Amino acid sequence: MKKHILLFTLLITGVFNAQVQGTVTDIKGEPLPFVSVYLNNTITGTTTNDNGDYILKLQKAGKYTVVFQFLGYTTLKKEIVITKFPFNLDAVLKEENVQLNEITISTKDNPANRIIRNTIANKDINTNKYANYTAKFYSRGLTRIKDAPEKFFGQSTGDFGGGLDSTRSGIIYLSETFSEISYQKKPKRFKERIVASKVSGQDNGVSFNRAEDSNIDLYQNTIAVFNDIISPISINAFSYYKYKLVGTFYDKNGKLINKIQLIPKRKGARVFEGFVYIVEDDWALYGADLSTTGAQVNIPIVNSLKLKQGYNYSDKINAWVLISQVIDFDISIFGFKPNGKFSYTYSDYNFKPNFLEGTFTNEVLSFEKNATEKDSVFWNKLRPVALTQEEVEDYKIKDSIKTLRKSKKYLDSIDAKGNKFGWSDPITGYSHRNSYENKTFSYNGPLFNSGFNTVQGFYSSAGFSYFKQLNKKGKWWNASVDVNYGFSEKKVRPTFYFNKKWDNLSKPRLAISGGITTEQFNSREPIMNLNNTIASLFYRLNFLKIYEKTFARIGYSEEIRNGVYLSSSLEYAKRTPLFNTSNYSFAKQSVNGYTSNNPLAVSDFTNPAFNEHTIATLNVGTTIIFSQKYISYPDRKQREGNSKYPTLSLNYRKTFGAENTNLNSDLLVANIRQDINTGIYGNFSYHLRGGAFLEKKDIAFMDKLQANGNQLLFPIDRTLNSFNLLEYYKFYTNDKYAEMHVEHNFRGAFLGKIPLLNKLNFHLVAGGKALFMADKKPYTEYSVGLANVGFGKWRFLRVEYVKATYGTFTENGFVFRINLF
């Protein structure tokens, strides 16, 4: 034991002794956060924390030149001789003396424009100098809240992990990540291996501080992290920005630095405001101090986003490389007003890495073993930016609270409060949770499971469910029973469900269900119950057409290898036709008349669309995401997809066992989807779907291939799944079938160049749709419209003009949507 104590003491002594430490302030004595502190002629160092404190770790005593660099302040060099550690070195920085004395401004040529044009022209030259590298990456995230509401919609908001004081203000999120990153420019690849990660007050320690998501490269034309905001040195930056040369100054090596102010050409566009600093002759970024708003990046809850970057010169490659970055944000939503800061440092660059064939794989992020379990000794040795006293206290307090809140006594006391039965629970629902044993018993109330259709009249569902978590790696099972009742139809339909999942890696899942339910004739379910309820009660329009199914079903799904997903199911069912039993509506009967429940003959209230029968259905499908990127967390796998390639889905469906053999069929269906980010030119998306029956037979209507229509002015669906002006059950086939949906959102690439109109900040959208069936003429639609329509930062609305053609018949109309869909 004594040996262990001695070893621990030596480790601590070594960590805290081999360092230069101090505080950096301005001339008024105010601390300066995120000042770059490093040794001269290197790009490795540290930054100051929120209090201006820093720790610069050195290997041995000797003579050094320490550099203090911060945008807006004169770079300071201090020569020191270290004979023993720790060595204290404070610094005071003066504001940069930016001036225009030596610059002649021509009325014909804005000097800022010349500088920006040269920087754009030299982007590839500069970035090619570090086209391949490895580096160490450190990030810290801190989020605070002030005057947090105690309740939200009547429910307690809690204490946010124990970080709030008596005024409900304090730190609600604190995290750190240290990782090793590898980068290759062509073809573009990025890999991150997290060595250590911690989150204050949490067990798993997995933070949000991912290096690739934090890689804000202003040399790119658009910044994906900020929702494709236009870079100030984009190839078409002059369509979005005006530039003004504020002044110049010389850096520590005598390089002339130009300070350029960004002036957006139109308010609300996807642009930054602020300043970029450009190195004369090198035409490289020296730094950036930028800001934007939530309205500009289409995230309305964000009030402001600020970005500050610092670059340093590497004489090894004759290039300026990123060494520090800070992102500040300010959010406001439903009375909550968090604000925070994420800071990043890059160090130990290796610009001549030995990348092998297996260096870059589809695994873009992984965790070193026990990365989330590193102790304070490890972090004190590793951490390049010193913690503030506030951060130290937050870790200490929340680690104590975490231990307490894992105890059975505490969890039982919390459950006792949450498990109290309320007066509204009989209609809204109720859950009884045992947090210590990770199990929950729930009653699902009828309030949010009710609606109206002409077959059942007003209907409602209620039921019970049980959930048991077996481990923290995704193993769980649940079972439920639901009962649906139609008040006009006077019929009860019970169903049961059982699901089990084994892990969060390949996500193998078994599902067993059965009972009596209602199904839409179109198995793609184009009509939401809420849509139909509103249309029926307020406009006397019953678009929903359903039949009854008494069934037993078993299904299984799993990712059998990376990017290849298998799904299968076997069902045996009796299908029974249904008829309208209710004529009720808030709308007067003279407005519209309800149609029958027969989608093949909406005026026939007597004959059904099919005869009752029993049949078995086998489905086997696969979805392939080519070269799928993924993250390997300690307890799960997170799929990232790959927008470079389309996603392919294939499905084989066999219906069999029917007494009438004509009802038996074999069907193949394929789907191809892709969303392509074209950068400054917007987003292009497409969806292709095709299917074919192996033999043309007189099968039941619900088994035929059907197109998703739309008869609502304001539909709630995805635009690449349905046709805008097509009646719901007009097109179906038991032969060959194909449909195509394409769409391009130009963002600001087109309208942004039109005077006056560009101030509205609308986005032009255009698309086309086509439907082909072996036994019908083609149906086509073309649309053009505006997205990002709204007021202020709330711009969710989208409106389109659509023209449809079927043979000699044409139809025109407007469709409104929410941008989220």
Topology:
Blueprint: H1 2-17, E1 19-26, E2 36-39, E3 45-47, E4 53-57, E5 62-69, E6 76-82, E7 87-88, E8 91-93, H2 111-121, H3 123-128, E9 132-145, E10 151-152, E11 155-156, E12 170-184, E13 189-199, H4 211-214, E14 222-223, E15 229-230, E16 241-250, E17 256-264, E18 273-279, E19 284-292, E20 302-314, E21 319-331, E22 338-350, E23 363-367, H5 376-382, H6 389-405, H7 408-418, H8 425-428, E24 430-434, E25 439-444, E26 450-453, E27 457-469, E28 476-486, E29 491-501, E30 509-520, H9 529-539, E31 546-561, E32 564-576, E33 613-625, E34 629-632, E35 637-641, E36 647-656, E37 665-677, E38 683-693, E39 705-706, E40 732-733, E41 736-745, E42 763-773, E43 776-791, E44 794-806, E45 809-818
Parallel strand pairs: 1-7, 1-8, 13-23, 23-34
Antiparallel strand pairs: 1-4, 2-3, 2-5, 5-6, 9-12, 9-22, 10-11, 12-13, 14-15, 16-17, 17-18, 18-19, 19-20, 20-21, 21-22, 24-25, 25-27, 26-27, 27-28, 28-29, 29-30, 30-31, 31-32, 32-33, 33-36, 34-35, 36-37, 37-38, 38-41, 39-40, 41-42, 42-43, 43-44, 44-45
Describe this structure in words.
The chain has 821 residues and is mainly beta. The protein is built from nine helices and 45 strands. It has an 18-stranded antiparallel sheet that branches. Strands 16-17-18-19-20-21-22-9-12-13-23-34-35 form a 13-stranded mixed sheet, sandwiched between helices. It is globular and about 100 Å long. The two termini are 63 Å apart. Mean pLDDT is 89; it is low at 1-17 and 102-107.
